[in-house]
Sequence to fold (224 residues):
Amino acid sequence: MNAIRFLGHSTFQLQLENIVCLIDPCAADSMNSSPRTMPSALRPHDVRECDLIFLTHEHTPHCEPDTVKEIAERTFASVIAPKPALSMIDISERFKVDVRTGDKFTIKGLDIEVVKAVHPQSTYPVGFVIRTPKYSIYHAGDTYSYLDMGRIKCDVAIVPIGGSYTMDPFAAANVVKEMRPKYAIPMHYNTYERITQEVSEFSSSLGTATRAIVLRPGEAAKLP
Fold:
């Protein structure tokens, strides 16, 4: 089965044939000193299968060191992240994969491309394009829109729409229209008060080339 499961905020689980990936796993009840209004569906104690963990940057809503350590040590997952995030994770160095923007490599049968993210609050933010022979999935991480972002090619674009620290719904929709993926999944919104948004403002602005998939924490979308 191939599926994308939303676990809240920017946390996703990808099931790509026999490979399981987690992106930005975070289970905290608060974020940036604010109570979490959209609870996480991630239960770190229950994670028994995970091959790869991707971290887009070092901020705790995206890089929760204890959660990553617990999952990685139980599952022997490799942790793929830029150095500021990777340095926060207390696991064996042999399970760490240090990346920079522009890197391209293959790991456990997946082709990985590390792409630019513009998030001035972070020391070194990135996004990831994860490719299989059938699918390409782009997780933008925390980012504002930037020149050439629309050139990123993927089947599924997972993009932030919360504003404040990232694109808002209209900026996200505009860049997705340039990318022209088959599907777009919004993230990083309504988790706490400062990033409250009407998700319909994103989905209704996409046009006809891309279908919006809006998921609640715990819900999954199967890839055809």
Remarks:
- The chain has one domain: 2-215.
- The helical segments are 65-75, 83-86, 169-179, 199-203.
